[in-house]
Amino acid sequence: MGRLLSPLYAKVSPKGEKQLNKEDWKLIQRIKDQVQNLPDLDLAPPNCYIIIESDGCMEGWGGVCKWKLDEHGPKNSERICAYASGKFFPLKSTIDAEIHAAMNSLEIFKIHYLDKPSLTLRTDCQAIISFFNKISNHKPSRIRWVGFTDYITGLGIPVKFEHIKGEDNKLADSLLLRALWAV
User: Fold this and answer.
1) pTM surpassing 0.85?
2) What positions does the domain Reverse transcriptase RNase H-like occupy (predicted)?
């Protein structure tokens, strides 16, 4: 998916060529087709484990809420129960976009995890993973990290952070582009 989307990233960058050519429109149609063929949603059972995957860029964000029967179940047993996307106004820096994508996803999918003992947040932003792996040793110094830490601790349940490779974050990435290219 990342290779499929790469020509369009230049189109949404501040200095990129804004004019869409015939190939761009074909690519957009392929993306729309993939988004239209998203898998059916499965209602999460009461005692399941929740996983949230998020992705962000300067212009917008995408998030997916998944469930599996137990925390240590295989990845192929995960089922999608919700997804969402949106745009940022004003534009955000790369790290701020990833942080806000995670917070927006957590906020929108709150109904799915508030009664759970814990959840996993997956992101392709290594800075978020590194920050939370070191948080016990360091105090956050930048406003972005203070706000994010406050949000996570304010959830009231433990959040496990996992890194997800960009190429494995296809659905959140597709939703992000859906928000950006909504016509």
Assistant:
1) no
2) 49-146
